[in-house]
Amino acid sequence: MAQRPLLRLTLTGLAAGLLAAGCSNDTQSTMTRGFNNEVGVKVDPGNFGDATMNNHQYMTGEKQYVYDLSQRFAAEVMTTVNFAFNSAQLDQGAIDTLREQARWIRQFPEVRFRVYGHADKVGNQAYNKSLGLRRANAVVNYLVSQGISRSRLEAVVSFGETQPLIVTEGRERRNRRTVTEVSGFVAGHPQVLEGKYAEIIYREYVNSAAPESNLDTQSGSELQIGN
C-alpha cells in the first residue's frame, strides 16, 4: 500500500515531463517559423492598417459613395437570382435578370461587384455552402460572357443556408439565390484616383447604352453551369 503514492508521484512527474517537452517543441517550432518568415509577421496577423484604411475611406467619403451606389444599383435593377432545388443552373428568368445587371455594370467601369451565394436548409451545411459558391460562380461566369471584366467581379462569399429569407427547414426557392452588390471602386482607375466619386454615382444610366447584339446572347441551355 505504501508504494501507491510513490507510483502516483512517478506517473505525475512523467506526465509533467512529457507536457514540458511538448511545450518546448511547440515553442521551438514557433520560433523557427518566426525566424524563417519576414520581419513583423507576428505583429501583423493580416489586418494591420485596416483602421487607417477605414478612416481614410470615411474621411474621403468613399465609404458613403459605395453605399449610395449600392442603393442605386438595387433600385434600378433586380439584384437577386433564384435557382431550382440542388442546382446551380441559370434558368431563363435568371438570365433575363443578369442581362439587366450586365447592362448596368457595363456603364460603370470604375465599380467592383461581389456576388453572394445562398442555399435553403435541406442538406448539410458544408454541402450548402459549396452549392452557394457554385451559384455565385455561375452568375459571375454569365456576367463575364456579357462583356464584364472578371477582375471587377468576385464570387468569394457563400453564406450557404445561414441567411434564409424565409425561415423553414424545407425547400424554399426564395432562399436558393444569389445577390449581386456593389463592393467598391476599381483601384487605379483615373476617375477614382481623382476622387470624382460623385460623378460616378450620379452618372446617367441609359438602359440601351450597350446593344445586346454586340455581346454573347446564347440561350440559357448553352450557359448552364452543372451541379
Automatic annotation (TrEMBL):
Coiled coil: none annotated. Keywords: Cell outer membrane, Membrane, Signal. Residues 70-186 form the OmpA-like domain. Residues 1-20 form the signal peptide. PROSITE patterns: OMPA_2, PROKAR_LIPOPROTEIN. Gene3D superfamilies: OmpA-like domain (3.30.1330.60). Its main location: membrane. GO terms for cellular component: cell outer membrane. It holds the Pfam family OmpA. It is found in: Cell outer membrane. CDD domains: OmpA_C-like. This is OmpA family protein.
